Amino acid sequence: MTGLGTLVRLALRRNRWFLLAWVLGLAVIAPATATAYETVVGGLAGAGALDVMAANPTMRAMLGPPTDLGTPGGFTVWRVGTFIAAAAGVMAVLGVVRVTRADEEEGRTELIRSGVVGRHAPLTAGVLVALLGCLVLGALVSAGMAAVGEPVPGSLAFGLGVALVSAVFVGVGAVAAQVTSAGRAARGLGLAVLLAAYLLRGIADAGPEGSVRRDLAWASPLQWMALVRPYADERWAVLLLPAGLTALLVGGAFVLESRRDHGSGLWSVRPGRDRAAEGLLSPSGLAWRLQRGTVIGWLVGLSVFALGMGSLSGSFGQMLEDLPQLEAVFRRLGQGAEQLVDAFFVAMLGIVAVLVGIVGVQLWQRLSTEEHRGHAELLLAAAVPRTRLALSHLVLAALASTAVLVVFAALLATPEALDRGDAGVVLQTVGAALALAPGGLLVLGLAVLLHGLLPRLAWLVWVVVGWSLFMVWVGSVLGLPEWLARLTPWHALPALPVEEMGWAPVLVTTGLTLALMAAGVWGYRRRDLRLP
Fold this sequence. Notes:
Blueprint: H1 4-27, H2 29-35, H3 37-41, H4 44-47, H5 49-55, H6 57-63, H7 72-99, H8 101-106, H9 108-113, H10 121-147, H11 152-179, H12 183-205, H13 212-215, H14 224-227, H15 240-258, H16 283-310, H17 315-322, H18 327-333, H19 340-364, H20 366-372, H21 375-381, H22 386-420, H23 424-453, H24 460-478, H25 482-485, H26 503-526
Helix pairs in contact: 1-7, 1-10, 2-7, 6-12, 7-10, 7-11, 7-12, 10-11, 11-12, 11-15, 12-16, 16-22, 18-19, 19-22, 19-23, 19-24, 22-23, 22-26, 23-24, 23-26
Keywords: Membrane, Transmembrane, Transmembrane helix
Protein name: ABC-2 type transport system permease protein
Transmembrane segments: 77-100, 121-148, 154-176, 188-204, 236-256, 295-320, 340-364, 394-413, 425-450, 457-481, 501-524
């Protein structure tokens, strides 16, 4: 492991802001939720309402299994614990891939190996830095929960659960980096495994009590933190599961690295056609060819999620019949909806609209990647104007993200439409999704503006996306001031069918989006290319 210390310091230096943003952003969620417990829950815990809500299949599928909802710590683990663990898993996958496979793809690893370093030193450094981020996050979660007055053993179990579950996905990312030949493919494979774990957990948790289906939750790493039962007679032995799986995956990654050639993955890259397809003769066709895997991956993942959540939407009615005290709570979560199913659809669309904003930004920023690798320069050296190149990626990002949102809305409402025998439910939900679409396009417009005029500040768009996701997932639980909720691109848009259609905010948002996009494309035409 010659040179390991130097490589660890280098990885920390290059990824300090990435890790800092993720760790601090996730660490504050748990203690903030715990401090808002009395405000959010009120007298529901004493009335047994929380227990009824936690037993609902849909709530269990979304949030995970409950432990002790009568305490702030137990409620926090149920309400945001699974979200924090899943988000930390995303951090782990992205963090380890960017230091391993992405650097190898860019040629940095080859340059480093030309010096005196051990064969496995680069991978070891990437894994150690990613594990350090997970451990620091776990420590901050434990310290934050203890600082707000929660029991130390439960806080320690909560933090260790988050740290070790996210460490599992460090191993997943490390294995994906050996299997694939490109950074995008490694990230896609790692996140696909995480999504599969989340879906398995949701399907299992929605099963009947005592059924074999419920026991399947043990097969999902994302469930192991909750199965430790923080703040409710902790089961410390469960922590051996993520610790053991992490060791197995990381060890497997080193074995796989020793069996592959540098620059390649275990999955061989198929040779291309001897003649280019007709679609590759235009910048738009090339953009689609580069991005189709990303689009299809998001489309399939959110479609499965939509069908799973939609099939459980009818269970809310039975829950209200069992305990009407919950009605006011869900009216608030659904922005005052009269029908509980409408409240559920409004809440789900609000979350997925932000995720679709991520889709648009991710697709657009492929242009930045092409520019950095020198591929854009090759295209522009031919008879391809800069405006046409930029629009090829911009149009794809706008259309694909909107289409993904529409498909999600249609599939989300399909089970309810079949149950009612009324196709109008699908049309109504699709209309609600389209009313929220300008928010995602506004985020895309900001990304275009930054890329065209201030490319070194392109990361700011992820601050907007991260804040929006935080507000839509836990903002209502924390009872934050209204003016903070307004600081998201989606807040002013009408939440159909709860609110009446308001064309003014839709048109204003759309107009601002077009202005940002036009300014960004104009700036891209005039500035110098950012070369490697």
